Task: inverse folding
């Protein structure tokens, strides 16, 4: 009888503690949005040097496709599009700033990959992209085989870096943290070509005469999505609902028209880039 009584107490304690644990998890998740509302702004990680997606203009203001989306998030979450604090990030630190709780959301043109999904949680996509390769028109690279034994410029921690590291060890990679450094290296001819998201390259060559995207797409078609800290289910679900709702009003096509079309003109089909409602 005594043994049965203590067994019952042990079972009750286990159930009670489990319930408390579940309550703490639920409370922490709820607090993720409550904390944002309490602090009065949402912290969003964006690029400072990746036009036309995320950049700081000559007046010191954040601009671009990601910024257009970030302001809408602030408006729908806090009632004011200006209640957003932009944290400038590098390509290699986009997951790190979430893990370290320096931002609530990363929106820095963040391509979803299996490796990154182990570290952060991705919401539904709002864009799709492939890798591309840009080089001088006079020495145009039109095939990856032409890069063997030569220097290729990439950004650290990007899908381009991962793709060539995994699939083409015969190609020497010259890596930089910042886009400004990466493209400066191409202009200075420190490498024969530069690999990056093709959507960015299409914009860059329009502003830089003498260069051409010799390989418009290679590797997989990837998606770009907002990311939150691993386990932040409440904020993740809010973002998913937000993206689905925005899709019903064709929001991301409007964002394209406002931020990307002035750069691309008619040279790029928006359907090749824009994802509405998180549906590929």
Result:
């Amino acid at each position: 009888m005594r043994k049965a009584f203590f067994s019952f107490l042990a079972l009750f304690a286990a159930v009670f503690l489990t319930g408390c644990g579940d309550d703490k998890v639920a409370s922490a998740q709820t607090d993720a949005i409550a904390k944002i509302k309490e602090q009065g702004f949402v912290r969003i990680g964006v690029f400072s040097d990746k036009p036309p997606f995320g950049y700081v203009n000559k007046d010191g203001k954040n601009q671009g496709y990601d910024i257009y989306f970030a302001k809408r998030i602030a408006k729908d979450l806090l009632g004011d599009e200006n209640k957003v604090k932009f944290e400038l990030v590098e390509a290699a630190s986009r997951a790190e700033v979430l893990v370290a709780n320096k931002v609530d959301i990363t929106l820095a043109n963040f391509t979803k990959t299996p490796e990154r999904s182990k570290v952060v949680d991705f919401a539904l996509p709002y864009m799709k992209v492939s890798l591309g390769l840009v080089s001088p028109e006079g020495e145009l690279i039109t095939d990856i085989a032409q890069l063997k034994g030569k220097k290729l410029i990439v950004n650290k921690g990007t899908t381009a870096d991962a793709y060539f590291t995994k699939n083409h060890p015969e190609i020497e990679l010259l890596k930089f943290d910042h886009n400004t450094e990466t493209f400066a290296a191409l202009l200075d001819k420190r490498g024969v070509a530069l690999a990056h998201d093709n959507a960015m390259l299409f914009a860059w060559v329009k502003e830089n005469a003498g260069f051409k995207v010799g390989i418009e797409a290679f590797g997989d078609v990837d998606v770009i999505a907002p990311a939150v800290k691993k386990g932040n289910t409440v904020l993740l679900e809010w973002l998913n609902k937000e993206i689905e709702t925005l899709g019903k009003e064709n929001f991301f096509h409007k964002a394209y028209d406002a931020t990307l079309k002035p750069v691309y003109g008619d040279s790029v089909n928006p359907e090749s880039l824009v994802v509405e409602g998180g549906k590929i």
In short: DSSP finds ten helices and 13 strands in the chain. The two ends are 62 Å apart (CA to CA). The first helix runs from residue 2 to 39.
